[in-house]
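User: Hi! I have a protein structure encoded as tokens and I'd like to know what sequence might fold into it. I'm fairly new to this, so please keep things simple.
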């Protein structure tokens, strides 16, 4: 499995493209605005078809480019049902954007929930629900690859903001401790913004939530 990281959109949100040239398949985790321009040439070069788009949570900066990706590839979409309104009727977020950013709805085929397990690119994926930043924030954990894609729940040295609708600081703290800090210390944490980190580093040194 190859990992490609694309910071994209107005606030440089990380999209993660996972490709398996041997299988000819790929998965995209989150779709910030205009990310398709970055994804398409990699798929062509590695001769992979994008089979699924996974949304870590419904905030606009993680979904803005999703409709374009789905139109171009026919990829099936996975997301948590707690963010159904944000994902399928994104105009509810327009009040916070002043109408400056156009958002299109996405209609997931699969609604994931805590503890779900499924196969992707020849590996098992576990879903963990990590609310607090956004009601439907989930992480996708590849045990074999020692990798967790956590959305905006946890960053290198920081945590997701909780002052937006649906945010809850106490809930986020509990979620991080129960769902992220219980992963093996060597697990690489791929966040929605900024650089990667590890579970062990954040447990020891994150000033907002210690393990």
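Assistant: Happy to help. Inverse folding works backwards from shape to sequence: for each of the 211 positions I chose a residue that suits the local structure. Here it is:
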């Amino acid at each position: 499995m190859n990992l490609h990281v694309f910071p994209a959109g107005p606030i440089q949100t990380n999209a993660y493209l996972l490709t398996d040239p041997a299988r000819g398949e790929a998965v995209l985790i989150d779709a910030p605005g205009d990310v398709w321009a970055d994804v398409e040439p990699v798929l062509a070069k590695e001769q992979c078809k994008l089979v699924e788009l996974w949304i870590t949570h419904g905030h606009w900066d993680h979904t803005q480019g999703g409709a374009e990706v789905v139109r171009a590839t026919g990829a099936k979409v996975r997301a948590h049902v707690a963010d159904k309104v944000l994902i399928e009727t994104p105009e509810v977020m327009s009040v916070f954007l002043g109408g400056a950013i156009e958002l299109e709805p996405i209609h997931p085929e699969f609604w994931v929930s805590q503890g779900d397990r499924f196969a992707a690119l020849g590996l098992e994926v576990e879903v963990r629900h990590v609310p607090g930043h956004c009601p439907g924030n989930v992480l996708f954990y590849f045990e074999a690859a020692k990798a967790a894609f956590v959305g905006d729940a946890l960053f290198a040295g920081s945590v997701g903001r909780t002052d937006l609708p649906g945010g809850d600081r106490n809930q986020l703290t509990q979620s991080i401790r129960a769902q992220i800090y219980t992963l093996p210390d060597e697990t690489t944490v791929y966040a929605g913004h900024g650089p990667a980190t590890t579970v062990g580093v954040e447990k020891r040194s994150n000033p907002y939530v210690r393990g």
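A useful reference point when you look it over: Residues 2-205 form a domain with the Metallo-beta-lactamase; Chain A fold (CATH 3.60.15.10). Feel free to ask if any position seems puzzling.
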